[in-house]
Amino acid sequence: MRLLRPAGGDADDADDDDAGLLRAVARGDADALAALYDRHAGWLYARLKRRCADEETVREVLQDTFVAVWRSAGSHRGRGEAGGWLWVVAARRLVDAQRARARTERLAAPEPPGPAPSAEDRVLAGLEYGDVGAALDRMSPELREVLRATVVDGLTTREAARLLGIPEGTVKTRALRARRELRAALGPHPLGGTA
């Protein structure tokens, strides 16, 4: 399709084709940029709109495209039409705009709440910081080690004996003593019975 030229202009004039307009833009000719914009902005807008539904982003990208053309028109090395070069510039600007928007959204998004503590974590926190923790702190270190190894860490008597470097019988005896001291320190269980 051939565009109609204004009267008085020669259709074969070098400044009338895209390459000529780009050479003029490279020399700082704002009228040449306006002519290039009038010639290509419509189809560039339509193609950008197919790739991005946000009209504001599309308008900004189109404007950025022609600002980039103004700055780098001298780098165009093609002959004749510059549509392909303009599309590459516009597509790159669109990708940059979409990345910037995604980065901004990621930074603006509130941090998701951390996972709720598990039942085991709550029990262990109670052992460390609650009444049980205070009772354990008042126990002798030997009894506390055995109780932590067998109850908190869930080791068998044999595994606890190996870990602590004491005989299995000693582990059993200390565990029994530790449980008795713990019951005495905690008193009756709130649900009835003893701890």
From TrEMBL:
Alphabetized UniProt keyword annotations: Sigma factor, Transcription, Transcription regulation
Record's keyword annotation contains Cell wall biogenesis/degradation: no
The keyword Transcription belongs to this UniProt entry's keyword annotation: yes
RNA polymerase sigma factor 70 region 4 type domain location: 132-182
Domain of life: Bacteria
Gene3D superfamilies xrefs: 1.10.1740.10, Winged helix-like DNA-binding domain superfamily/Winged helix DNA-binding domain
Residue ranges occupied by any RNA polymerase sigma-70 region domain in the UniProt entry: 36-104
Pfam families: Sigma70_r2, Sigma70_r4_2
InterPro entries to which the protein is assigned, alphabetical: RNA_pol_sigma-70-like, RNA_pol_sigma-70_dom, RNA_pol_sigma70_r2, RNA_pol_sigma70_r4_t2, RNA_pol_sigma_r2, RNA_pol_sigma_r3/r4-like, WH-like_DNA-bd_sf
Family that this chain belongs to: Belongs to the sigma-70 factor family. ECF subfamily.
Protein name: RNA polymerase sigma factor
Organism of origin: Streptomyces lateritius
